[in-house]
Specification:
The complex is a heterodimer. Chain A has twelve helices and 13 strands. Chain A is of the alpha/beta class. Chain A has one domain: Luciferase-like domain (TIM Barrel, Alpha-Beta Barrel). Classes of the chains: A alpha/beta, B alpha/beta. Chains A and B meet through helix 5, strand 7 and strand 8 of A and helix 7, strand 8 and helix 9 of B.
């Protein structure tokens, strides 16, 4: 069993109006510095507590998630934490130049002594609005960009790329990753079909708990393991990365009270666009998930963290989830929009002290 | 036959060579692959900027079996004569696909001064050590990433296939790949090598060899296309090849019009 922490970066003022995008007028330089310090404080606790990986993800324009370039943050993490894996989980490919993504990840892999684990994403609704990507094209862009990144890492000769979305006449990524042929790749799935493709490709499987019901996640995990076996490289439990929201308090009652008061796990607090972007985001969502009814098995009826309660309760929940889905690599999110930093810090410390040691056994 | 293209025959080196020609502009000679002379939509698009002169290799299609050409140098000598007989004035652009790519490379090695630019599409000169030609009944699965886009054609008669494969086997079997590599070092002709990322007949990685050995070669991967990349992605193939024919080495300089508004 391995464990990772994902810190999206929360702006150090829980009283900001909700909604996305967060207008620049709310950014106070000193608070910005404090916000980054808070993120590092959480990473520090996790690493000191025995976590195996620190992870970052690309998100833009949000007061509850400001890591516009995951490779910039990953480079900082790589220097601060010399002994853990660096999870770049990950770049939103349709928003970036895939060749630059390949180059930057290769650079971080070199800087970190070959400790990166990489995932790539198509991006949620708000991301599609950031650089004006056409949501009708981003799935196709994602597939092509991933193929280009892999070629950039592995082609020994200078080459050109004539794609549908990308045209480069001179590609020659230099540096290349320390890990050869490239860092481990995590690909996320919400469906059995996607899990089969990921297994056949030899990638690690990523499951984001809020997007997939436990029953669907179990099917996805099973399909992945079967595909890996067919491909001749049976999967270890640690090849399935489960990203989930966790809140630990002294007691179940306290955890429930905090979850209700701070609406921990309510994704709308992070993703819900401000009024003047709401209609656009709804249209984007309609395009992103067109033809995918019940996309991941449906969101939970009551917004709550995926795992929450006393340390003993959370340990039980995690063991049950790991047993039914088959994951062996937990990527935990301990912050939540509006949750006071001190509460998130204490939750993480409790997890590190009282849950992780037993979970790792 | 593509619209606007016409067929004629020329005598060259004792062979009666079929020529299919269309389009306008400076000449681009085309040499086909092992399946025979078939022009696809990429040729139609290219013919808007170039006069396409496609030659049928002696021994292919309805022509008598070719028992004479023993190796690529011999068939290249015949083809150079046929190109001249077809009225193509040097310097001209030379394009070859698969088997025709290996032929075109040998024409360029023999007559570099006549070649303005060389385009090798999924060329067959280099193949993995364990390479075998696919059985004809599997050809469609092997040749295309998008068979649904391929033009439907009557399959050639068994005798035609057998005749063509015998010639192809003899040419490919005679090729000394190490010796060819050594000859390529001095070929200065601007060359473009294109492979589809999904080529299931000859791995795209073979394209690296041309890049390594030719001093003036660009190697481009055409995404989401198989061996018959002109059928799989005709617009992309024609845009790439057309740009190279127009600008040669300078085609690596960005020229997309990216201004949103003046």
């Amino acid at each position: 069993m391995k464990c990772s922490i994902w810190v999206p970066g929360q702006y150090a003022d829980e009283g900001l109006p909700e909604g996305w995008p967060a207008p620049g007028k709310y950014w106070e330089p000193e608070r910005g510095v404090e916000s980054v310090a808070r993120a590092f404080e959480l990473y520090d606790i996790a690493v000191a507590g025995g976590f195996d990986m620190v992870s970052v993800a690309e998100h833009h324009y949000g007061h509850s998630s400001f890591v516009p370039s995951p490779t910039v943050m990953a480079a900082a993490l790589a220097q601060r934490y010399p002994d853990v894996r660096i999870g770049i989980l990950g770049p939103v490919l349709p928003l970036s130049n895939p060749v630059r993504v390949a180059e930057e990840i290769a650079m971080v892999d070199v800087l970190s002594g070959g400790r990166t684990v990489v995932g790539f994403f198509r991006g949620v609704a708000s991301e599609q609005l950031v650089f004006g990507a056409n949501p009708e094209l981003t799935a196709d862009m994602f597939r092509e960009a991933l193929a280009l990144v892999l070629h950039a890492w592995t082609e020994p000769e200078t080459f050109g790329w004539e794609g549908r979305h990308y045209r480069f006449r001179t590609v020659s990524a230099f540096p290349r990753p320390l890990q050869q042929p490239h860092p481990p790749i995590v690909s996320s799935a919400t469906t059995v079909e996607a899990a089969r493709w990921i297994g056949a490709s030899g990638h690690l499987l990523g499951i984001f708990a809020p997007t997939v019901s436990t029953e669907r996640a179990a099917e996805v995990g099973e399909a992945y393991r079967a595909a890996r076996t067919v491909a001749g490289s049976p999967a270890a439990a640690e090849d399935i990365v489960y990203r989930a929201r966790i809140y630990v308090a002294a007691s179940d009652e306290e955890a429930e009270a905090d979850a209700a008061e701070y609406r921990i796990g309510d994704m709308r607090r992070t993703l819900a666009p401000a009024e003047h972007r709401a209609k656009a985001a709804a249209k984007v969502n309609a395009l992103l998930y067109a033809g995918k009814p019940n996309h991941g098995g449906g969101p939970p009826a009551l917004p709550r963290p995926d795992f929450y309660g006393s340390p003993a309760t959370v340990l039980d929940q995690l063991r049950e989830s790991a047993a039914s889905i088959g994951w062996g690599f937990l990527d935990g999110l301990f912050t939540s929009p509006g949750l006071p930093h001190e509460k998130a810090r204490r939750s993480l410390a409790l997890f590190a002290a009282e849950v992780l040691p037993q979970l790792a056994q | 036959m593509l619209e606007g293209f016409a067929e004629r025959r020329v005598a060259a080196d004792g062979f009666d060579v079929r020529v299919v020609e269309g389009g306008s502009g400076p000449a681009a000679v085309y040499l086909h692959g092992g399946g025979g002379l078939h022009l696809d939509r990429s040729h139609a698009l290219l013919s808007e900027m170039r006069r396409i002169v496609a030659l049928e290799l002696p021994g292919f299609g309805a022509s008598p079996a070719n028992e004479r050409s023993q190796n690529f140098d011999e068939i290249a000598a015949t083809l150079a004569l046929a190109i001249a007989a077809a009225g193509v004035e040097p310097p001209y652009a030379l394009i070859g696909t698969s088997l025709g790519g290996a032929c075109a490379l040998h024409v360029a090695l023999a007559h570099p001064e006549q070649i303005e630019s060389l385009v090798l599409i999924s060329p067959a000169a280099f193949r993995p050590a364990d390479w075998r030609p696919p059985p004809p009944e599997l050809a469609a699965q092997v040749l295309y990433a998008h068979p649904e886009r391929a033009e439907q054609r009557e399959p050639p008669q068994a005798a035609v296939i057998e005749k063509q494969q015998r010639l192809m086997g003899r040419l490919l079997g005679s090729l000394d790949q190490d010796a060819l590599r050594a000859r390529m070092h001095t070929l200065e002709v601007p060359t473009l090598v294109v492979f589809g990322t999904d080529d299931r007949l000859i791995p795209a990685a073979m394209g690296r060899i041309y890049r390594e050995e030719l001093p003036n070669c660009s190697y481009v991967l055409l995404y989401d296309a198989g061996h018959e990349l002109g059928s799989d992605r005709p617009e992309a193939a024609a845009a790439l090849v057309g740009d190279f024919l127009e600008r040669r080495e300078a085609f690596v300089i960005g020229s997309d019009i990216v201004a949103v508004a003046p």
